[in-house]
Amino acid sequence: MNVNFSKICLILFLSGFELFSFSQNADTAKPASRFTTVVTLTTKGISTIPNLTLGKPAVLFDMIVGRKLTFEPQFRFALDGKPWTFVFWWRYKLWQSEKFSIVMGAHPAYSFKTIHDTIGGVSKEIIAVNRYLAGDLAPVFLLTDNFGIGLYYLYSHGIDKDATNNTHLVALRANLLNIKVSDKFYMRFNPQVYYLNMDEKYGFYFNAALVLARENFPLSASALINRSIQTEIPAKVDFLWNVSLVYTFTRQYVEK
């Protein structure tokens, strides 16, 4: 599906602004609503779904607005300014206790790619988009203050003819939090193994993220690896890695 990118940006910006306003109004009677913005500069855009990997330097913009119900838009671009993926998550905390939580979510998503076409005898570069609808479920068990395990399930349906019709992802995750490096620095380590099924082709993968951060400081550094264990799903490479610089801004808002 070909797209006029300037019009899509305007529509998505206005939609996001309207949704942000809705979230604020809906939560005016609720305490401690959160607003978080994360900007990531990475050496290589990587996705757990192989055909959505960018494979070159990228910048990522993430936002979280809300409390129990959150709106979490994600905008990913290659460094040359071309769009990579736009995802508009809505997430809801079904259950939250000291040791157990379960979150469900749903989103529309847009995956962009650059193609070349000949129009009127002239070769032109065109940005095409594939549209997806998806939902996920994520239960997490906190075994100690700094260690948790969880399951994750994602289903995605491609709307366009050339998109993957049905994608299933099932992951077993571990979360190691607040690993002290020194008095001021700490790490987070998040490994997972996952099963991926895309239109009857399947694969098993290993993925891990490591974050180094300083207390009360907005900048952090991270590294990510993604490795196929056994797969029928075609990909350009079996092993991917990147390093990233991350800026995080967080505020909480309470009605007076």
Summarize the structure.
By secondary structure, this protein is mainly beta.
Descriptive overview:
The N and C termini lie far apart (48 Å). The protein has one helix at residues 5-26; strands at residues 33-42, 58-66, 69-78, 83-96, 100-119, 122-144, 147-158, 166-180, 185-198, 201-214, 219-231, 239-253. The protein has one domain (5-253): Porin, CATH 2.40.160.40. β2 (58-66) and β3 (69-78) form a beta hairpin. It is mainly beta and 256 residues long.
User: Regions with pLDDT < 50 over 5+ consecutive residues?
Assistant: 5-28
The DSSP helix count reads 1
Q: What sequence of helices (H) and strands (E) makes up the elements? A: HEEEEEEEEEEEE
Instruction: Kindly report the average pLDDT value.
Output: 88
Number of strands: 12
Silhouette: globular
Descriptive terms for the model:
single chain, 256 residues, mainly beta, Porin, 12-stranded antiparallel β-barrel, 1 helix, 66% strand, globular
How would you summarize the topology of this molecule?
Elements: H1 5-26, E1 33-42, E2 58-66, E3 69-78, E4 83-96, E5 100-119, E6 122-144, E7 147-158, E8 166-180, E9 185-198, E10 201-214, E11 219-231, E12 239-253
